[in-house]
């Protein structure tokens, strides 16, 4: 029987099937749950070695193409794309830590990640110590315990623009054979590539700058491919010991890429954090213009920060591109091509002034997101940082009048006009 001779229902299902190949200039979207095997041995080989594609949860050609793209941009050996930025953080951590282990983390991190540490990982008997003064290498060193298995920080912190001295902290990690995991979402590889400065693993919320248009969710883990079993094997027995049934260890099969292979084989697919091939395609498309967008956004942000700093209604501006920022010189050392486009500023009028601001912007969009082509505003004290204590918010530079801006690619004069109009309203209302 052929498709031509089959009955209606069979033709409807099978008539589109084709093995024709074509050289698409854009990355094709393989929007399928699974892939057809050539023969019996092909299926067996896939399940024994993991090569090729069998089921999209464990691998997909569209996803794989974008993983190669992102690994190249971060100067990494390999990458794993997952369903969200939060999934990227969780996957990276569960690749290197387990029950009874300990993490040292910067205090200056995304609240969702902090909640993961305090609520979820704690229930798995994984404890976290937070470092307030991330600029002090001795504070990091003092927090390390015999069971510490990861250091975690953001390259450019949300919201005060604290810059991580990646080289200094990664050197401390190297002393103890502990990987430094850096969330590089705010800086993006267009401005900073932490792996080039000694970090072991980089994560991103690809929903932000990488995709760039606020339309998809995704996350990525990028590894340096330099796992050293001789130096770090005692901290990662799951990578160096034989697997179930005396199967060869992950390190025996993948060498220096053992960490990212373990993330791909044993963490991401088993926890089910698989990305949609369509979302992967859109992330890959967004990445192609990342450099152009970040350049424009950084230029706009600097001009706006300089403008805000001159206004009497503004108490302070926390933008690392300004000479007034305490990490300005460190930023110049690490950030190449701009200072990013996300920063906070604090209004003199406190919470009433902040309320007036977010309720009357027109060009700026009031929403919880960053890294969009559109300019966005949020009040951290009542949203992203609401679960922090007042003392914790003060440490992070989040006060009642503090607002976070994510600057987009609009014409900067239109953004300044919107800000000028709103600040005039704030001045009149608060006065």
Would you give an account of this structure?
The radius of gyration is 24 Å and the shape is globular. Helix content is 41%, strand content 13%. The mean pLDDT is 94. Helix 3 packs parallel to helix 13 and helix 16 packs across helix 18. It has helices at residues 8-14, 40-49, 61-73, 85-96, 111-123, 137-143, 166-175, 188-191, 229-232, 237-240, 250-254, 258-271, 277-287, 290-309, 328-334, 350-360, 390-395, 412-430, and strands at residues 78-82, 102-106, 127-131, 148-154, 180-183, 201-205, 219-223, 314-318, 342-347, 365-366, 376-378, 402-406. It is built from 18 helices and twelve strands. The protein has 431 residues and is of the alpha/beta class. The strands form two sheets. A seven-stranded mixed β-sheet has the order 1-7-6-5-4-2-3, with helices on both faces. The chain folds into two domains: 40-44 and 51-287, Aspartate Aminotransferase, domain 2 (3-Layer(aba) Sandwich); 290-430, Aspartate Aminotransferase, domain 1.
């Amino acid at each position: 029987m052929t498709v031509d001779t089959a009955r209606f229902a069979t033709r409807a299902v099978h008539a589109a099937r084709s093995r024709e190949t074509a050289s698409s200039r854009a990355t094709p979207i393989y929007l399928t749950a699974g892939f057809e095997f050539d023969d019996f041995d092909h299926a067996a080989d896939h399940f024994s070695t993991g090569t090729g594609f069998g089921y999209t949860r464990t691998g997909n050609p569209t996803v794989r193409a974008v993983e190669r793209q992102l690994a190249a941009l971060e100067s990494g050996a390999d990458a794993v794309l997952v369903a969200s930025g939060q999934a990227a953080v969780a996957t990276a951590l569960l690749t290197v830590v387990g029950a009874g282990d300990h993490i040292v983390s910067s205090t200056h991190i995304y609240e969702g990640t902090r909640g993961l540490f305090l609520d979820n990982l704690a229930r798995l008997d994984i404890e976290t110590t937070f470092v307030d003064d991330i600029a002090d290498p001795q504070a990091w060193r003092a927090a390390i315990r015999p069971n510490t298995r990861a250091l975690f920080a953001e390259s450019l912190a949300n919201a005060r623009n604290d810059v991580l001295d990646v080289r200094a902290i990664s050197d401390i990690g190297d002393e103890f054979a502990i990987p430094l995991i850096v969330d590089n979402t705010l800086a993006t590889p267009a401005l900073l590539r932490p792996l080039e400065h000694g970090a072991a693993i980089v994560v991103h919320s690809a929903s932000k700058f990488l995709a760039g248009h606020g339309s998809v969710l995704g996350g990525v883990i990028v590894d340096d491919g330099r796992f050293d079993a001789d130096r770090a094997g005692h901290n990662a027995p799951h990578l160096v010991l034989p697997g179930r049934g005396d199967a060869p260890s992950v390190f025996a099969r993948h060498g220096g890429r053992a960490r990212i292979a373990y993330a791909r084989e044993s963490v991401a697919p088993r926890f089910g954090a698989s990305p949609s091939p369509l979302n992967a395609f859109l992330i890959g498309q967004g990445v192609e213009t990342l450099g152009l967008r970040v350049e424009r956004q950084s230029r706009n942000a600097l001009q706006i920060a300089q403008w805000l700093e001159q206004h009497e209604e503004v108490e302070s501006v926390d933008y690392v591109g300004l000479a007034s920022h305490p990490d300005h010189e460190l930023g110049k050392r690490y950030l190449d091509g701009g200072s990013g486009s996300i920063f906070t500023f604090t209004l003199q009028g406190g919470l009433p002034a902040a309320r007036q601001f977010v309720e009357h912007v027109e060009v700026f969009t009031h929403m919880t997101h960053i890294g969009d082509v559109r300019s966005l505003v949020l009040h951290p004290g009542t949203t992203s940082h609401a679960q922090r204590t007042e003392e914790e918010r003060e440490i992070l530079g989040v006060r009642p009048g503090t607002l976070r801006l994510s600057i987009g690619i609009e014409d900067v004069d239109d953004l300044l006009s919107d800000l000028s109009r709103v600040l005039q309203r704030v001045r009149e209302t608060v006065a």
